[in-house]
């Protein structure tokens, strides 16, 4: 069991997450997280190829330009935006045949 102070703090934070202000701020973070993911997966920015701040900074600027060019190209060519991925469990549930709630028993 959690101590009372921890429980109250957790309850306060969960209540805060239901406010529109929190959702607006988190939406901004979600956009940044998507950009960071795109930089690491498409441009290989997980680790710097260069030593030194000047070269690393230049690499980051060029990566940002490349991401922007890819997004402009996708917008102009009419490529559909990637949707939210569906997890494995959700896919299995969606593909499962609807049952009446009765257990499947061998005859």
Short description:
The protein has helices at 4-16, 20-42, 53-77, 88-95.
Secondary structure layout plus pairing:
Layout: H1 4-16, H2 20-42, H3 53-77, H4 88-95
What attributes characterize this protein structure?
107 residues, Transposase DDE domain-containing protein, single chain, Tnp_DDE_dom, 64% helix
- Total DSSP E strands: 0
C-alpha-based Rg, rounded: 23 Å
Helix content: 55-70%
Low-confidence runs (pLDDT<50, min 5 residues)?
Answer: none
Mean of pLDDT: 83
How many domains? The number is: 1
Describe the main β-sheet briefly: none
Distance N terminus to C terminus? 47 Å
User: How many helical elements?
Assistant: 4
Structural class of the secondary elements?
mainly alpha
Principal-axis shape equals extended
Helix and strand succession?
A: HHHH
* Strand residue content: under 5%
In words, what does this structure look like?
It holds the Pfam family DDE_Tnp_1_6. InterPro entries: Tnp_DDE_dom. This is Transposase DDE domain-containing protein. Residues 4-72 form the Transposase DDE domain. The protein is 64% helix and 0% strand. It contains four helices and no strands. It has helices at 4-16, 20-42, 53-77, 88-95. It starts with a helix and ends in a 12-residue tail after the last helix. The mean pLDDT is 83. It has one domain. It is extended, with a radius of gyration of 23 Å. With 107 residues, the protein is mainly alpha-helical.
